[in-house]
Design a protein that fits this description.
Distance between the termini: 19 Å
Number of helices: 3
Helix content: over 70%
Shape: elongated
Number of strands: 0
Structural class: mainly alpha
Order of helices and strands: HHH
């Protein structure tokens, strides 16, 4: 019973890391060309949105 709970905790932790890595890899190809150095300039709300999303992913990792 204790071993099962430990394995489940490890599973959720590593899955949260995998999700964070997939998200980081997916966005890493586009951040510079389509968010930071882009013409026309993106709406200002996009930057707080990116910060909140990053915080949510970090919170997801810490809670697992």
């Amino acid at each position: 019973m204790i071993r099962t709970a430990f394995l489940l905790n490890k599973f959720f932790f590593f899955m949260s890391l995998l999700i964070a890595l997939v998200v980081a890899y997916g966005f890493s190809h586009r951040v510079d060309t389509e968010l930071i150095h882009v013409v026309p300039v993106r709406p200002a709300i996009l930057y707080p949105h990116a910060a909140v999303f990053t915080g949510a992913v970090i919170f997801f990792i810490f809670q697992s």
